[in-house]
Design brief:
- By secondary structure, this protein is an alpha/beta fold.
- It has a single domain, classed as CBS-domain (Roll), CATH 3.10.580.10.
- Helices cover 45% and strands 18% of the residues.
- The strands form 2 sheets. The protein has a 3-stranded mixed beta sheet. Strands 4-5-6 form a 3-stranded mixed beta sheet.
- The longest helix is centred in the middle third of the chain and has 15 residues, at 78-92.
- It is globular.
- The relative contact order is 0.22.
């Protein structure tokens, strides 16, 4: 029998709050990577009732960090880069998670078939998806979960 989301999801996951500063979120990303058996590249954003509001990824943060103006990066000296990093650090303390999070999150139910999950992830370029049971978040599904499951299944046939 082929697995469903509930069979291969990770039931433990970290969440962020929308009113956290980016500095607090970054610290949580860094500490979560030390606690988990794998790096954490994205987290769900939930309210006090644990309802899903959005997602924030490292990629979202890096897009925010990257200077908007085109520059000659090779021509920048260490002092210019240090000033840029200081400005980014200041912005981390005033920008909130809600300002950067993705609000339209694609989710799957615990009963979603793994091949359907694979199709969604590839077509939509998604690396992680919340797994829902009704309105309740019950896990996180990473593309690595899908990869490992399918490879183990294919190699055992």
């Amino acid at each position: 029998m082929i697995a469903k989301a509930g069979d291969i999801m990770t039931p433990m996951f970290n969440t962020l709050r929308p009113d956290m500063t980016l500095a607090e979120a970054v610290r949580k990303f860094l500490s979560a990577g030390e606690e988990e058996p794998h790096k954490v590249f994205g987290m769900m954003v939930t309210n006090e009732k644990k309802e899903l509001l959005g997602m924030l990824s490292m990629y979202d943060i890096l897009l925010y960090v990257r200077p908007k103006k085109s520059r000659n990066w090779e021509g920048m000296d260490d002092l210019e880069i240090s000033k840029l990093l200081a400005e980014i650090g200041r912005n981390f303390h005033t920008t909130l998670v809600r300002d950067l999070m993705t609000r339209e999150v694609i989710t799957v139910s615990v009963d979603t078939h793994v091949i359907r999950i694979l199709d969604i992830m590839i077509r939509r370029h998604i690396r992680r998806m919340p797994v829902m049971q009704g309105e309740k978040i019950v896990g996180m599904l990473y593309i690595s979960n899908v990869f490992e499951y399918l490879c183990h299944k294919a190699l055992s046939l």
